[in-house]
Amino acid sequence: MITKINRLNNFANYRQFQWGANTNFTKRNLIYGWNYSGKTTLSRLFQVLEDPGELSQWQGCQFDVELQDGRRLTQSNLANTPRVKVFNRDFIQSNFQQEHKAPAVFIVGGNTIHLRNRITRLNESEAKTTTIKKKRNDTYQQLIRELDSLGTTHARAVATLTGDKTYNRTKLNVEINRIKATPHTFILTEDCLQAKVSLLRSTQDWKSINQVASLAINLEALRQELSVVLEKTATNEAIAKLKENRELESWIRAGLTHHTDSAECEFCGSAITDERLSTLQRHFSKAYEDLTSEVASQLARIENTEFIITLPDERDFMPDLKAPFALLKSRITDWITWANTVIAEFTTLAKHKQLSLESQISCAVDTGRASEITQIILDINSLVKTHNQKCMQIEKEKVAAKDAIEKHQAASFYQNNNISDREVEIQKVNDKVTKAQNLLMRIAGKKAAIEVQIQQQSIAAQKIDETVQFLLPDNNISVAEVQGGSFEFRRGSSLANNLSEGEKTAITFAYFLTTLENNGSSLSQTIVFIDDPISSLDSNHIYAIYALITKRLDPCLQIFVATHNNELYTLLKDHWFEARQQFSNRDNACTYYTRRFLDSANHKWNSTLEDTPDLLRKYKSEYQFIFEQLHKFSSSQAPSLHEAYTAPNLLRKFLEAYLGFKKPCISQWSRKLDLLFDSDINRTEIQKFSDDASHLQGLNRALQQPDFISNAQNTVKKVLKALKDKDPQHYTSMCTVIGVTP
Fold first, then answer.
1. Please, which residues have CB within 8 angstroms of residue 598's CB and are 6 or more apart in sequence?
2. Where are the transmembrane segments (predicted)?
3. HSE of 635 in the Cβ direction (CA atoms, 13 Å)?
4. Distance between CA 624 and CA 11 in Å, rounded?
5. CA-based nearest residue to 226, from 287, 337, 286, 303
């Protein structure tokens, strides 16, 4: 189902329509609006959904229609639209081209024998064509098998020659397509062919080598860090025995933490004097302890230093690169030996510092060769790069050799086996097979179309006739079958040569209802939009139209009925909604209102679709709604041009209804104005304003009158005042209905 029209721009008077807060569409949707309010234009949007080809008539339009499943249909995306059927004035014009004919898509019963004979003749042609197609197809398949056999045998030979086990008939065909324009240019001499085969078959296989990672250890930085530590000093009241024995010193340092408040040795149980504890604590000052820790940390880092460089295997290099690599490898070995010597010197200095924390020590270790390792690794990686490039070049040469051999073999096969002539012959036979197949498809299409016509012919005529009899019971119109796939409409026993517009509307509506379930289509899968179905029909036909809509179309997936006729609107409103709920929207039924308004910015008419106003929804007459519009305009402090422009038509509708009830014996409404106005001048003014101004054909005439808005408002005020004075009870009642103070 369609849930809403999110946007409709540049579509006739729907210039900038937005759905806004409107209630979503449901299964049954009733749309009311006066003439020219936008109902037919809205139905034409549904025509675009029915037939996307109609979009060409709406250049520059933009719309966004949302479906129940969340899909959006727009002017640029009309794929997979739901099944939509629209009845409007366009449908009447396109489906009733002549007065006495219905659309020629239906076949009458008199042509059944003729159509069956046509199918018999088509069956005979189909059998002959099928036999011819089989013979030609057999020939085609034989030629294909012969060519495939030659190609498969040759492809195997090429696979053996190149050593490519994946080479097959398909790859041979690809090569043939590449060389077939100039095959002779790909033929190799015997010597050239053998040279390329030898290169391709060479077994020496060089692989690429990974780059050597740079060394993360920086000896010079390590030396500088050690120098800083060696130059630091720390003083204390050293105990000679502890100073000379660092292990004992470490043991005492750990033990002090357990004897802060103890007078007895936890190890041996002997007494510890306060003087002895104080002496030990002075040995371990904070600066002394911090430097001790820093030296120990630096020593651990030095002792853990290892020079590990992962080098490729010399055997992996190409011959001309082995010697340079061996030389660089020996330089790395030499450098590592030197670096380990430096580390040993660093270790000695650090350990010496542990014994002389109170003294500064100079770090005179030579690290001048520290940066050599970086260049050596760069040189090795340069050799690796050269090796890898040579590997790639060899592979490229092998690939090029294989490609040349395959093209040579394809060209030889193409020339030696006359492949060009074989392909021409195959194409000729295939064209004949295709021609026969196309003929069979055309025959099948004709048969299907005739079968559809036969299926439709009698049923369609009967259904249309039944509906026409229901709609026009007093017109004596009936449907008669004639040759040529047409219907003839008769009035009694004579041809109905001069059908009225109302009769045309009724007949076309009957045809529309019949087509909804044509060709096996289901109403339960169909969205139906009916626009003013009683156009050109008098009030006697309203109940028949109402009955057809509520009974015949109730199974529809979704239905939209748009009308300007208040009687039909009221009938459908009574049927689809509940009076006790003030005709409010239901889960399966909603009502809407189309109106036209004037854009004050550009003075152009705009149409919009909105939820039905309460007065139209609650009451069975538009009389109250018109009174509300007039009262609102008369009391407005800033009346708009749009309100003034529509006021004459509203005033005429109101006066026709009110005066018609008051004095039904007189038909012309203007002759009843004496019920409201005693003065003939006032009666003439009101009649002239209501008649002439309500027929303004455009805005220009209104805009040319500077006082048009104020004159319109004053005229409406005059009528409402007259109603209040002459019929205060009715005036008060109407004010109560619309919710204003009399």
1. 604, 605, 606, 640, 641, 642, 645, 699
2. none
3. 12
4. 32
5. 303
Nearest in space to 545 (alpha carbons), one of 534, 536, 555, 556: 534
627 and 583 in a common domain: no
**What predicted TM-score, i.e. pTM, was given to this entire model?**
0.50
Q: Taking 50 as the threshold, does the pLDDT of residue 484 lie above it?
A: no
- Say how many C-beta atoms besides its own lie within 10 A of residue 538's C-beta: 8
* Tens-digit pLDDT profile for residues 210-249: 999 998 888 889 989 989 988 888 765 455 556 666 666 6
Q: Which two tokens stand for residue 617?
A: 């929804």
Shared-domain flag, residues 133 and 76: no
How does 107-122 read in b/e, with b if 16+ C-beta sit within 10 Å? bbeebeeebeeeeeeb
Most confidently modeled range among 167-171, 533-537, 667-671: 167-171
- Enumerate the β-bridge partners of residue 67: 2
Over pLDDT 70: what percentage of the chain? Answer: 85
Count CB atoms within 10 A of the CB of residue 81: 17
Residue 550 DSSP class: I
Distance (Å) of CA 218 to CA 148, 214, 373: 69, 11, 10
506 is a domain residue: no
What does the pLDDT look like over 372-418, one tens digit per residue?
Answer: 999 999 999 999 998 898 788 877 878 888 899 999 999 999 999 99
In a domain, 271, yes or no: yes
* Rama region for 578: left / alpha / beta (φ>0; ψ in -120 to 50; rest): beta
Q: How far apart are the first and last CA of the chain?
A: 46
| Phi–psi pair at 137, nearest 5 degrees | -70, -35
Helix H, strand E, coil C: the string for 459-486 is HHHHHHHHHHHHHCCCCCEEEEEECCCE
Domain span at 17: 2-96+520-599
Q: Please name the residue that has the structure tokens 């499943």.
A: 69
Tokens standing for residue 609: 């679709």
Tell which residue, 633, 607, 558, has the closest CA to residue 34: 607
**CA geometry: angle 635, 636, 639, nearest 5 deg:** 135
Helix (H) or strand (E) holding 117: helix 112-162
Q: Cα dihedral sign for 254, 259, 265, 266?
A: negative
- Determine the average pLDDT of the residues in 620-636: 86
For position 90, which CATH number holds?
A: 3.40.50.300
* Exposed/middle/buried for residue 317 (C-beta within 10 Å: 0-12, 13-18, 19+): buried
* Mean pLDDT to the nearest integer, 322-337: 93
Does residue 594 sit in the same domain as residue 644?
no
Q: Is residue 445 part of a domain?
A: no
Which ranges of 163-218 does DSSP label H, i.e. alpha helix? 169-179, 190-201
Phi (first) and psi of residue 701, to 5 degrees: -65, -40
> In this structure, which amino acid lies at residue 574?
D
